[in-house]
Amino acid sequence: MRKTLPVVFALMVSPTVLAEVVALKGATLIDGSGRAPQQDAVLVVDGERILAAGAPGKVKVPQGARLVDVTGRTIMPGIINAHGHVGLVAGGQNRADAYTRENVQAQLLQYERYGVTSVLTLGLNRDLVYELRDEQRRGGLPGASLFTAGRGIGAPDGAPPVPVAPDQVYRPKTPAEGVADVQEAAAHKPDFLKIWVDDVFGKFPKMQPAIFKAVIEAAHAKGLKVASHIFYLADAKAVIANGVDALAHSVRDRPVDAELVAMMKKRGTFYVATLNVDASFFALADDPALLDDPFLTGALPPESVQQFRSGEYRSKVAADPNVPKARAALENAMRNLKTLRDAGVRIAFGTDSGANPARIPGWAEHRELELMVRAGLSPMDALFKSPSWKVSTGLETIEHNQCRFCRIGNLNTGIGAAAESFWLKREVYFGFAELASEYGRVFNSNYRLGGGATLGTLVDITERWKVGVSGTYLQFPLGEKSHEWRVSAQQRYALHKNFAVRFEFNQRARTQEYLLNLHAYF
Ligand SMILES: [Zn+2]
After folding, report:
1. Total domains in the fold of the chain
2. Residues, beta carbon < 5 Å, ion ligand 1
3. Alpha helix (H) residue ranges in 298-448
4. What's the CATH code of the domain at 337?
5. Which residues does 290 contact at the CB level (< 8 Å), separation at least 6?
6. Ramachandran assignment for 354, one of left (phi > 0), alpha (psi -120 to 50 degrees), beta (any other)
7. Three-state DSSP class for residue 154
8. C-alpha 83 – ligand 1 centre gap (Å)
9. Is residue 515 very low, low, confident or very high in pLDDT (cuts 50, 70, 90)?
10. Which of 160, 327, 346, 353 is most buried per CB count within 10 Å?
11. Are 162 and 87 in contact (CB under 8 A)?
């Protein structure tokens, strides 16, 4: 995580700390306004207050301020997790007796330590949660700000299939029981209501539509918003048609369609992708090196680290029939998140951390950011949109006709599309239709102009560093009439969101060439 994501530098100076003016210098600053990150920023903090933030020339650092060099780090606003849990896991296990004041408190502190400053605990809470929340709002309980959906409403002998005490979830058998449960929950003034509509890979009976219809209506009558656990596209549409306010997970059985997009946009329904949920089934078994990172192990009790390191855990994951389903679900979830985001659906951030030992509070939120970027959400490192334009220009030295080292200039534009897979880390397959022009004395009539196509693939090695191979065929009917095959191996290092430096080795029909190019993508 830390290798690829900014470390959150959470600003939570407790009031007991002696007020001292501190100037943090050299960080990349994401100021929360939606502006692009600022490099080499200065941030001035006085006790609990941020006095100023911005470029070094523009921010005045008060005399006597303590200077702290945070070069290479990122300062960003606290993360708001709209789907988390507390008090479900203790000592590396889901336990019905885990919901204690001490455990909840420790988990809120852990969230805060990882820069998650607010968490909405979306169900499976004992009523103790209201006491803790109210105590915190009076200033008596440190840690991430606690918002809660209380117990939540599931199905009898169905979802959520988690070992909890009977007073941690309602399981109404009829619409009338569902309404009574909403009324009891509403008396505690929860911040949200949660329902579960899922058969958990076909294993359990699902909540009946008549029940969720009655529950959503009753909740709205009490002024409560409702988030629904879903897996299937059909269930997502059914709960939205009945007025649900947020989908608490991704649609994962199939690609989302225009009907869902239209429903969500019309009603302003929020979408919380929780990509971490599906990844948590296999990520630690697939990539045990994650367990060498103190950023992860710092979020786990030692017995969990032992457990995840064991061969026994990896065999269990390898034998779990739900794991291949979770892999497919993650691919669908990533594609759907990108589709819904591009379509303008409202996206909220959430992870389902704390629901089981592999969904790790604090760490999961950083993992989720990484998965969202891989899903193509952030343009910071995205290569192509679909379709996308490219323009490139440069100087080349080629062997052509009778000239051995001939300098030519080129200008090349194209329109293309890309697809991706996640077999290794991330692979992008792309195709471009191109117009190409080349100028130089080596050509008869000093130029040639034509077009053709490129097909290729790029593989991510790190967030910024990619390698790839591609093949191009160009036909030049104007200027010097000719045609050419090119095969190319490239490496590309991203400098900024739309710029990249590329070093290429190209094998043409008769010659080899080396190119250093600056590319701009739009
Ligand atoms: Zn959950």
Report:
1. 3
2. 352, 355
3. 302-309, 311-319, 322-342, 363-374
4. 3.20.20.140
5. 1, 283, 284, 296
6. left
7. coil
8. 6
9. confident
10. 353
11. no
